[in-house]
Amino acid sequence: MKGYLILENGHTFSGEMIGAVQQGYGEVVFHTGMTGYQEILTDPSYANQIVVMTYPLIGNYGINGTDFEAKRPWLTGFVTSQACTKPSHDQQEKTLHSYLEEQGIVGLTGVDTRSLVRMIRQHGSLKGYIIRATEAELLQGTLAFPDLPRDLVKKVTTTGIYQHTATGDHHVVLLDFGAKANIANSLAAHGCRVTVVPATTSVEIIRALQPDGIMLSNGPGDPQENRDLLPVIRELAQEFPVFGICLGHQLIALAYGAQTHKLKFGHRGSNHPVKDLLTGRVHITSQNHGYTVDDASLPSVLQVTHVNVNDGTVEGVRHRALPVFSVQYHPEAAPGPEDARALFEQFTALMLERKGQSLAYAT
To answer: Which CATH architecture has domain 2-139?
Structure first.
């Protein structure tokens, strides 16, 4: 079935609809990864977004039962140049097409994604519809492009407390702002017992769980829309080591008085170079964010530890007096680079120090 991606700037891209035969509306963003489409489809950080894949062939290894980052997708559309109908992988259980249909997500393939991405890079992220060609003809000139909700954390967070990992040397409470499953998996791989809690969980409840450390997860939307969470973050940081990833990083910065702003088209890919200012090393990182911490607004209590080599934006901070640190990128990325796995070792070292068993991680 023929369909269109119609952008708010008036441009239209044609293709063939796959997945659910329905209309999709969202912020149109692009991801430059060659692999990992299953993780992208199920990353809650893509809530209310139509994701364009820049790699030309997507779906060639199908969908398997183990590489999900969440139980369901939160994006509103998926756009490719080509979508493979006959995947080849020993673990594949279904095609991309059948997964999208099963989950009620509309897709569009056969699109000139090179031209589309060049437009997004020029104009910035744009709102758009994926729509059937027959409907597009009927609605021509009448489509509205309303603002999208920016407070999405409460939409995607877990509804209850649960234990992801029952055993481990360190007990970590993971605040779920839209957490990817591999954050908890990575913590478990570094010897942590992980309890996942809703984003709005109180300090009293978290304290009663007797954690050794606090993990602040990734998540969707505008970080400024989550200011109600900042007092909890500040209070927890007074008692426990805190590690923030992506949105968690932005919320730590906001909690201490910094500001954030929206990037023109965001960072979404698996090969972004980031420089560690403490060691001078450059890491290849996986990223997915549309907002960044404003460097000029950072208070003196926070030190910039990492910067993006491409555009100089802040990619990491740490508190000068407390065991609190964060990165904008994804050290748990799977599939993706593993350059930043040592950050989990840094976190476990801080928890050991809190227990009086070891010195803090050397920087």
So the answer is: 3-Layer(bba) Sandwich (3.50)
